[in-house]
Amino acid sequence: MNATLFYVTFALYMSATAAYLVYLAKPSESLGKYARCLLASGFVVHIVFTIHRYVVAGHTPITNLHESLSFFSMAVVGVFIFIERRFKIPVLGSFVTPVALALMGVSSLFPSAFAPLNPALKSKWLVFHTVVAFLGYASFAVAFGAAIIYLMQERFLKKKKLGGLFQRLPSLNTLDEINYRCLTFGFPLLTVAIISGAIWAETAWGTYWSWDPKETWSLITWFVYAALLHGRLTTGWRGKKAAILAIIGFFVMLFTFLGVNLLMTGLHSYK
Predict the structure, then answer these.
(1) Can you give the residue ranges of every domain in the chain?
(2) pTM to 2 decimal places
(3) Averaged pLDDT, 79-106
């Protein structure tokens, strides 16, 4: 049943992504609603999948790459649904849902079998630390999508190509606002995740910070987004600069989450 729920979720996310991409090429209110319905249906099934896995495993299913990538995907969809309802911009889904779909696709490449929980993960901090971190990551993923659209719009304006796709994309001000809102939501969550992770590390390994690769890259990610937030609040960074740094931050975050696990070894290596 667990595998069935996973692939039903994947199929619904794939269908929603296709619908959003068609919407980008030929927007219509009915197609936008259809895409939202598909995505929301996939999100509901994804929640059921996660709950089922929790019941069977006996712990929060965020303890290996299959589970973590799946949960990350679910968080991205959840944050996007909230942002889309707030700003009424279906076209943003054309750039965010492919990220969620890709995460699910990569998740399917890793073993999904249930396994005994690593002793270090048997902690009350597991749920709080990981859920907070993934909500922050999901916010950065949505900011990434908005940043991509911003750079496209900015390029259209610079080249004075104001027809076609330009007319279907949101204004630069709206995209910059989404970027900022996601940053102000995601950065505090990332900060809390790092602090809670340090407290958890002290209880598990006897030290708050050991410069483990995951810890080091988490700090690098934090500095990238701290620089972006500082620039926006103190020196008026907006628009293109903010969009570029949001994209850089997203890829640094992805490496912190996935690249470190696959390419480096350390205390946080759970595959």
Answers:
(1) 1-117, 126-271
(2) 0.91
(3) 94
